[in-house]
Amino acid sequence: MVNAIRALGGGALYDHEATDMVTPDGIANAEEHWWTDLFHSIRIVSLEGDVVTDDNFPDLGQLDELVSVGLIGTRISGRTLRLLSTTRIETIEIKGGSVVDDDLVWLARIPSLTHIYLSRVAVTDAGVRHLCTLRRLKAVGLQNTRVTPAGAARLEACTGAKVFLE
Fold first, then answer.
1. The pTM is what?
2. Can you give the residue ranges of every domain in the chain?
3. pLDDT tens for residues 130-152?
4. I need a labelling partner for 109 at 20 to 30 A (CA). Which of 48, 101, 117, 155 fits?
5. Structural class in CATH, domain 2-165
């Protein structure tokens, strides 16, 4: 798992005495130390760039402590969101990619989600309706999407979350 994240140029935040950021170099160094099961304590994964695709996305479901995933400028779609639907993440940020309305069904299957940030994706009012099942949702950020103020208001009404259209 750690190698898969490193191969994609990603980083991960983990808990080990003090919280440190694991960069690709840091992951390599960590593998040389006594905590060979480091990936079990990874809490945040951030993957950036168009090298990250559905075909090479790591199975983050193995990360027991994972709470946040950031996907910035990647080429992911619903196939990747389906993999994430088995996690217990609380926060997801997706900027760019091929995410469309029907793909949000997979986010709706993550009952632990409290914060969702979507930017530069082709999501509309119809797509965000899928998120109405998320009872823990506190905030949704929608930037450069096709969600209208009326769609945002409906999402606020059905979840109680604060929805930000930017």
1. 0.82
2. 2-165
3. 999 999 999 999 999 999 999 99
4. 48
5. alpha beta
